């Protein structure tokens, strides 16, 4: 197991424990409640409180801290099951897994935060010794109940993968347009367009943008625009490094 994956696993377990304080039966969710139909989910997905959206966006952002307090590519992801949330808005939902951008460390250009999250969730859901023990067919069906939170809008590659998974919704902080304004290289196709074109599959992923947008924007401002370093970091030339880093 890579060191970054080990730290992410630790953070995942800590956040899962925190989430379980708000719901008593997370570990049995798939056995207790059948996956809702897409009609029910789509009619309910805007009913969740903003505080719930913000909670999970901050969890997605905190995944980056497992790698560094000043990550250069702070694209963090949290994949959440809101099945119980739609029937009880006070229920935060269940964290399935986290993901962070790993292409800089691995050399694999496809390992954006969302793609890493999808891979991590697949491993967790199908682990025969794990919490869910789902078969491959059950896992494919489970994706339809999930919401993906990401610090920045998914690129076309990630949006395509999310569409193929049939996820219920994507919630993001910083938009692709804002990333471009801040100097980040991006393919200029918004996630909404990808999901609309993928709608012929019979299911359209809903997009909810600009959740904590101003807060997430700050994570992407220092790399090319010489904005302020994240909290706990200080500028050393072109880089932001942890304070006290020699």
TrEMBL record:
CDD domains assigned to the protein according to its UniProt record, in alphabetical order: nucleoside_deaminase
PROSITE patterns recorded: CYT_DCMP_DEAMINASES_2
Keyword Ligase carried by entry: no
Any GO molecular function: tRNA-specific adenosine-34 deaminase activity
Domain named CMP/dCMP-type deaminase: residues: 50-195
Xref: InterPro entries: CMP_dCMP_dom (IPR002125), Cytidine_deaminase-like (IPR016193)
One GO biological process term: tRNA wobble adenosine to inosine editing
Domain of life, source organism: Eukaryota
Pfam family name, one: dCMP_cyt_deam_1
UniProt keyword annotation of Ribosomal protein present: no
Keywords: Signal
Coiled coil stretches, renumbered: none
Signal peptide extent: 1-19
Protein name: CMP/dCMP-type deaminase domain-containing protein
Upper taxonomic lineage: Eukaryota, Fungi, Dikarya, Ascomycota, Pezizomycotina
